[in-house]
Every structure is written in C-alpha cells, then in structure tokens.
Queue: 2 jobs
Job 1
Amino acid sequence: MVKIKNNLSDVARQMMSGVVQIHVEGNIEEDVQTVLNPAINLPGNWSGSGFFVKYKNLQGYIVTNAHVIRNAIKIEISSMLTSEERFEAEIVGLVKKLEPDVALIKLTESELSRFKKLAIKEIEYLELREGSSPSRGDELKAIGYPMGMVEPNISGGEITNFISGSEYTTERFVTNAAINPGNSGGPSITKDGKVIGLNTAIMAGADNIGFITPASFVKIIIENLVQQNEPHFAGMGGLLQKNADNFNDLLNQQKAKGVIVSNIEENGFLYAAGLKKRDVILALNNIKFDRHGIVIDKEGYYRHKNIYDVIKLIPIGDEVRIDYLREGVISSSKALAMRNPQKGVFSNPVISERRYLEVFGMIVQELSYEIIEAMVNVDSNAQIDMLQTIDQNKSMLVVTHIHQGTQADDMDWPLGEMIVKANEQEIHTLIELQEVIHKNKSGKVLLECRNGRIGYFTVE
C-alpha cells in the first residue's frame, strides 16, 4: 500500500517499484498479407510496460495495454526489484479491439514464488483511483519503460484535456507528460498515491500530447477478465442523433434538449426499455443530457462527458432508468444494462484466433473488419461490396487468397468473392462449408457468390 508522501515526486518514486517492463515474442499483426492469408506469420519482438494492480486478494496480476500483449507467443516481465531477472507471465485476458486498450496478465504460480524470493522488498501493488475524475491542470506522473530502457522512467505533466467517447470508443484523458513507445501500459499517478489511468498512446506528429485510459474503465475490464468473461461495456443498442430546435414541432418539444433515437436494434438496451424511433432521451439514471448528448452538470461546462461515457460505466446487468420524451409527454422506463447485439461481421485482430479453410486453391475466412480494411490495398470495389454486409446478423464467407495453378485460379476467381451457397445450400460459416465438402468427398461442389459468380470444383 502506498503511503502518502509530501509531494508527487516522492509518491512516484515509491510507486515506481510496482511498475514492470514486459518483454514479448509474438507475431506482427500489421501486415496485410497475414490478414488475407493467416497461414503466414511474421515473428517479432517488442516491449512495453505494466504494473502490479491491487484488486481484492489477487497476487501477481499485472495491468498493461492490450496492444502490448496481443498476438504474443511468449511473455516475460522484469522489475527493478529483481535486477535483470525475467519471469514468465500468462495472459488472463484482453480487450481484443483495443477499446479501451486494456489487458491483464499474471505471473505463473511458480514464477511469482521465485519473484518474491529474489525481490529486494515486497511487491508494490498499485491502487486504481475511483470516484471523481481529475480536472484540467491536475499534476501527474507517467511511469514506464520508454524506448526499451532497462530502468523505469518518470515523466511529469498535467491533465490538459479530455476526449469524449463515442458508440465505438471510450473516453480518454489528455496529458502533456511524455508518453513514448514502450511507455504503453504503465500507470499515470497523482499525489494521493492512486493510479488515475493507463498510459495508452501518443499522437503522431503532435508535441506533448499523450492519452490515458481512465482508471474507471480499467477497473470494469479487470472485473470482467478476473471472472473469465469477455470484456464488454454496456451499449445503447441503437443509433442516436443530436437534437435541434428545428425538430420542436415534429417532436412536440418546447426546447431542444436530449438526443433523438434514430434507430433501435432488436434485443438491445433501447429495445428492452420499450423506446421507439424519434423518442428523445433526456436522462440515464437521473444524469441529464443537452441536445448534443453532453452531460448537464457543473462538470459538464468544463468537459464534454457524453451519453456514451455514461452508459459504458454502468455494469452490465445493473438496472438503468431512462427518461424520455414521446409526443410531448415525458415518461420513464427501466431495463438492464447490456452489451450491444452482436452482428455477423466481427473484429478478429488476434492472429491465433483467425480460422480459415484452404479448399480448391483458396483461403476462405469468415468476414471480419480486419479483412475489409485489408481489401482496400487489393480491390476497393470488393471492399465496397463487403461494407454493404456489415449490418447483417449472420456471418459471411469471403475468399481472401488464391494459390496459383489451382482450380480457383483456373476459374479466375478474384479475391473478395463472398460465398453464399454450396450445392444450392445457404452457408454462412466455415463449419457449414466444410460439412458440404465432406458430404461430397469424391464428387463436385458448386459454390455461388453474392454477386452471382459460380465455381464448380472437384473434391480431391
């Protein structure tokens, strides 16, 4: 437990012993070819930072950024408490899409025991700050191992700004404290001896601008991962738009405040609460919003905390009261906070989880956002076709690689073809395609694509 010192520098020096360097061997994920052909792996080595986190009675658990350990094959940590010794760690879980960019790892039981034997003092477990958020101008220290340094680095600065979240992103604190590559995953701390957030990123091309993931979001992720749940936040389950006085007559409102529901997803939060399109959301759990969806309170004048920031910090399963305006009448309803309904197209950034079939000279995968993004470098028209399928509820099979001199190559099948039928049977998953092929071990398989293209293949 950190004892409060006289000044922030003293606090930072004590908390520094709870910060570790993370050494990773893994696969590099940025290459387009590894997305389109998962059989290709590009090995690499990199490092980042993390810190021992105080959470209930857990020991040896370390918080870091998800991008530090995503696609890792081997993870080791080192600490100033144990000279240059390295200790093996394993992944507890991570936010795969990096929103927020949070992961949890832990020392194996034997390695934690070895760490304790070699350490010059007990492990310093750092506590996440709860309750009120920092204000602009609040002083902080960012701790980590930038640029692969072998000793922890302390950089000073303050909270300079805030970036609101959105339907797809989480809130960020902005700081002028130096945050460089390798610093990712370390803590930003204040003089009360608490972690206010996780050092997350820098802005390329900008001087003295770094981003911090707030401790409140980190805490929710830890709770999910420790319980072995997928780390998800609550969502609105629909689309919202800003209100305006132009809508006063249409919505029977006196003055524009609250946000308009423009679309509702079946089985989502708004659907469960009984809302309809063109209802105006005025408040969640008595937190009121202006026409831009910004929280109306004293703090709101100084930072734009919005409706998405509010819903994400409500634990999934908690009851939420929603106040809304419908045809001039203010009503309220309740529903349980829940994640947004899953769509057929998903994100699949972890290389080891990319499933594929290699059939008839083709690599076939289930469509993901990563594949759509990669296709811009191959065929922009195919990418446009893929984008039209994003909102469907079922997955879609797509051809992402063609081997030369094969059946698919002879039929001149291009990349990006989306397969919808096999032997006249509608298919959406790799398992369904595999079953059709298995039933025709010595025969033919007719594949049909979304655009009508067909292929007639011999099962070999």
Job 2
Amino acid sequence: MTRSRTLSRIAAVQALYQSEHAEMSTETVIDQFVRHRMGQLPWQGGLEDGNLPEADVPLFTRIVRTATQQQDVLDGMITQALPEAWPMLRLDPVLRASLRAGGAELWMTDGPPAKVVINEYLDVAHGFFSGEEPRMINGVLDKLAHLLRPAEFTTAS
C-alpha cells in the first residue's frame, strides 16, 4: 500500500533541509523536487533511490511553503518547546527541517488531527534517525500541537 501523504512529508523534510543547506529559494527547491523526484516517470526509481514518485505533490508543496512563510513564528515556538540546552542552531539540520515541516502541518488547521500529524512525523523521523531524535520530535510537536490546536486536546481530556 502506497502512503502518498507520508511520502509528501518525507519530501518536505528533504526539501526544507536542501533549501537551508544550499541556500536555495523555496520555489526553486519545490520545482526541483517536483520535476526530478516526484511524478510517475517510468525511469525514476523509488524511495531507496531518493525518489518519491507517488508523493502527494499538493500536500508537499503546501507543507514546504507554510514552513517557509511561517518560519520565524514556528522557529520561535520550536525554540520555546526545546530543552534549554538545545538551541535551534545546535540541532541536526534534518531534525530542524523535520520540526519545521511538522510545525507547518500543525499550523494548517484544515489538515488531519494533530495526533495523526505527530505520528506521521514520528514515522518519518525513524527513517532518518536511529537515536533519541524521534523522541525529541514527538515531544516538541506535541507541545506545538497544544499551542496551535488547543481545542483538539481540551475535548479529549
């Protein structure tokens, strides 16, 4: 079973990393990903080759744009949610991109429930990290979810 939305989240993390690392504009990175790593082209490999041919392109684009447009606000919220000993710039760049992508999706209140978003980014994190990073992503995104979508938690308690 293909998980096109999960593939979109993986691509968003990669694109945000690439944008920061290569100092490329958001639109340039989106264009490169859509042209060269997404789509149903027969010669493209799969995820193991760094390609995401079955990703949900509109979701990918929306996450990357929201993360970039709201980066200052999201970074401030992420900084507040991080342990004091871990400033944003000390984080691994892929971890930083993961938190920004997850935060961006939580920002979009018309998307899936916060708990679904958090679980999706936990799955994504396990693809990139084998240490404690997934736990950190879980904790930070949970704090962001409570800030950005408090109504989802008041009725559940």
